[in-house]
């Protein structure tokens, strides 16, 4: 039998627990309100996220979410820099597309300044649209977007084709090719549950949670729980990426890459000015010097150009070791980089300068 004293004690304990819980809840809410601005500030703004989501839905991904924060202080980035960067303000437009090799024209201050100086001296506006891991398929989609949504109509297109583009096309992007509701070709983003390189949806999902119409405490709890959910390892292995350079490319893969590159060429020249020119740029990797690699993407590019109806309007610059004179291998390539990116000095002094010299020739023809 419950006595009066026992009942009263139970009520008192319940009230004390309720008070403690309520106080803890208020303190937690207060702490969450103070923490939320700092947590949210780690991500891009709502406007930037909307821009990113719109165009990543078509091109698979854009420049990495922290790109604006990593720009040299001399470069004042804006939202469109996730997709492209304008350098100069001349009447003649030159578009640069490609992967991280092309992106380095923006991220490496020396190369950026070299383009800036050339633009000022030659009445040129460079549209530097390189994005890490881009290959001909996302480049073609990006080209359509730049023309349609941003009114960019280049007189010359410089397309950087890296050795890794072959595997990017055959392994990374092949299953992501699709069409939007208007029938335009797109390269879909990856499934958010897969840990693919450059997968952007998990990042955007976290922003959506932090911007929900709930209390700061609820949003932070959901945000923390979201980060705890394991993501399945996915993507192409290192061996898959370097296989084409090692000569491990099937006839079907060979034909597929040539087809994607031809599609890019056709996209560039579709409804273009008759005087527009396309300049392909290729470069060997460290493994070509050490004997690890035997095949070069330049061979596939030459083959594709030869098959194109626009071949007379296309040029190729294929870099060779002799372009760097007596420079050692570690003066050319970044030390320890498996993807053989150029050092800032090599990119500025040799890579950029040879491309600009060829550009001068093309614009004077």
Task: Please summarize what this structure is.
By secondary structure, the protein is an alpha/beta fold. It contains 15 helices and ten strands.
CATH architecture of the largest domain: 3-Layer(aba) Sandwich
Query: How are the strands of the biggest sheet laid out side by side?
Result: 1-3-2-4-9-10
Domains, number: 2
Poorly predicted parts: none
* Total DSSP E strands: 10
Characterize the main sheet.
Answer: 6 strands, mixed
N-end to C-end Cα span:
105 Å
CATH topology of the largest domain: Rossmann fold
Primary descriptors:
12% strand; 10 strands; 52% helix; 15 helices; Rossmann fold; two-stranded antiparallel sheet; elongated; 365 residues; alpha/beta
Can you put this structure into words, describing what you see?
The chain is an alpha/beta fold and 365 residues long. The protein has two domains: 1-41 and 198-233, no CATH class; 56-190 and 236-364, 3-Layer(aba) Sandwich (Rossmann fold), CATH 3.40.50.1110. It has 15 helices and ten strands. It has helices at 4-40, 46-59, 67-70, 100-107, 109-122, 136-150, 165-173, 201-210, 216-228, 238-242, 251-269, 286-290, 297-307, 329-332, 344-364, and strands at 85-87, 92-97, 124-128, 156-160, 177-179, 185-187, 194-195, 232-233, 277-283, 314-319. It has a six-stranded mixed β-sheet with strand order 1-3-2-4-9-10, with helices on both faces. Strands 5-6 form a two-stranded antiparallel ribbon. Helix 5 runs parallel beside helix 15 and helix 6 packs parallel to helix 11. The relative contact order is 0.12. The model has no long low-confidence stretch (mean pLDDT 90).
């Amino acid at each position: 039998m419950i006595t009066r004293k026992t009942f009263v004690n139970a009520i008192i304990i319940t009230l004390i627990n309720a008070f403690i819980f309520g106080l803890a809840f208020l303190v937690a809410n207060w702490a969450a309100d103070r923490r939320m601005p700092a947590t949210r500030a780690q991500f891009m703004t709502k406007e930037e996220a909307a821009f990113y989501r719109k165009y990543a839905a078509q091109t698979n991904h854009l420049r990495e979410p922290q790109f604006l924060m990593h720009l040299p202080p001399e470069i004042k980035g804006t939202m469109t820099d996730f997709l492209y960067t304008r350098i100069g303000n001349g009447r003649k437009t030159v578009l640069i597309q490609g992967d991280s090799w092309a992106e380095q024209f923006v991220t490496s201050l020396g190369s950026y300044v070299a383009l800036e100086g050339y633009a000022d001296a030659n009445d040129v506006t460079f549209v530097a649209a390189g994005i890490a891991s881009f290959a001909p398929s996302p480049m073609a989609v990006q080209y359509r977007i730049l023309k349609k949504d941003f009114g960019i109509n280049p007189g010359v297109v410089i397309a950087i084709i890296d050795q890794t583009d072959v595997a990017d096309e055959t392994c990374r992007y092949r299953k992501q090719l699709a069409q939007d509701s208007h029938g335009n070709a797109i390269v879909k983003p990856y499934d958010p549950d897969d840990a693919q390189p450059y997968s952007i949806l998990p990042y955007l999902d976290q922003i959506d949670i932090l911007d929900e119409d709930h209390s700061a405490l609820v949003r932070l709890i959901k945000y923390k729980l979201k980060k705890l959910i394991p993501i399945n390892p996915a993507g192409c292995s290192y061996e898959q990426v370097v296989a084409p350079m090692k000569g491990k490319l099937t006839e079907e893969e060979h034909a597929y890459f040539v087809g994607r590159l031809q599609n890019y060429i056709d996209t560039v020249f579709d409804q273009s000015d008759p005087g527009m020119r396309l300049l392909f740029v290729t470069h060997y990797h460290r493994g070509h010097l050490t004997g690890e690699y035997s095949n070069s993407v330049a061979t596939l590019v030459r083959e594709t150009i030869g098959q194109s109806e626009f071949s007379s309007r296309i040029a190729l610059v294929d870099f060779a070791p002799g372009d760097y004179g007596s420079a050692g291998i570690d003066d050319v390539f970044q030390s320890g980089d498996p993807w053989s990116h150029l050092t800032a000095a090599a990119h500025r002094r040799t890579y950029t300068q040879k491309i600009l010299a060829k550009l001068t020739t093309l614009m004077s023809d």
